[in-house]
Structure formats: structure tokens, C-alpha cells
Amino acid sequence: MKRKETYLSRDFRETAALRFPAQAKELNTAFDMRLSALLAENVGASKEKQYHLKRQILPGIAAYETLQRVMPKEEALQTVHGYVERLARTSHKQLAALLYIPGLYRLVPGVFVKSTRSVFGPAAGFAPKELQTGNGVWRVDMMKCPYHDTCAEYGCPELCRCFCDSDDISYTGLHPKLIWHRTKTLGRGNDRCDFCMKVR
Fold first, then answer.
1. How do beta strands 178-181 and 137-142 pair?
2. Is the pTM of this model over 0.90?
3. Nearest CA to 44 among 55, 53, 32, 34?
4. Which of 13, 40, 133, 169 is the most exposed place for a label (fewest CB within 10 A)?
């Protein structure tokens, strides 16, 4: 069965083709083999957690490790960061465009509450502590996160910062009346991620 390409695997293949044409085939094979191994090692994870593992975490780790064969570690990290950043900038544009619809911005914190409960809940390996959810405010402390845990488990905790940064890129400055705020993240070595999205 052919796996569905993720944005990370697509971008990785593009880097291999453009920057390392002579080794592209070998790099793609190495990436595919590593990703298959990672998926096999995590086959027991819940369906909710698999969503994050398959879409971002494991392809990110596979790309990061494979790129280190042809470039220094720091450059490999920046390269994967670039992939995640590109997606975040696209989603920021799309969301900001959507929020031109008058009054729609007011619904954003409520949408965040719902999606935290459905996609970023304990079943997926997250441990959200709801501080305030309602009246135009979404404040959640994330005490545990599979992005952080999995990257750390595979010896690349620094990779998690790519995913932390993508939140900031996606949600900062979406609308003049929306405030996105976060001072700490697990991926940057803090004891929690303190998320906040509120209507001013």
C-alpha cells in the first residue's frame, strides 16, 4: 500500500532533487525506509495520536535524520523548519483571509476550544489543562505533548521547536481584534505550553 505523501515528505523530496540530484534516489530510499521503521515502531499508538505522528511528527524526524547525511545538523534543522514554516505561512494567509468576514473573528477562541478537545486531547497524548474557555477566551496550559515527547524519545528534542514556531506563525496577527499569546513551550524547554487566544 502506497503511503499518502505529507507536506514534509513532499518538501524533503524537493530538497533532495534540487540540492542533491546525484544522491536524490538514495536519499529518498533512506527517508522511506526510516519513515517505515518509525511508523512500525509506533503502530500501537491510538488513532488520535497516529493523526499527529503520521502527518507531521514522524515524517519530520525521518526528514531531519536523513538530511543529516548530506548537511550539518544545524542546517538540517533549519531545512525542516523551513518546510513547517512554509505550511504555517500558507495557513496564516488562508485563516486571515477567512476572518475578513465581519464578526467571524469572534468565533475563533470557541473553535480552538473544540479542536483542543477533539484533536489535542489525552487520547492523542496531550495533557491540556483548561484555564479559561468561554466569553471570547481560550486559555490552555499544555502539560504534555506528543510532538515534544516523540522528538525527545528519538533523540532530537530540538526538532519540536519547528512545530512550536509554526503555531506562532499561523496564529499571530490573524485579525486586529484577536490576540494570540504564548510565553512558554515544552519544545523550548519550559515546563508547559501556555496557550492563549482571545478577542480584544
1. unpaired
2. yes
3. 53
4. 40
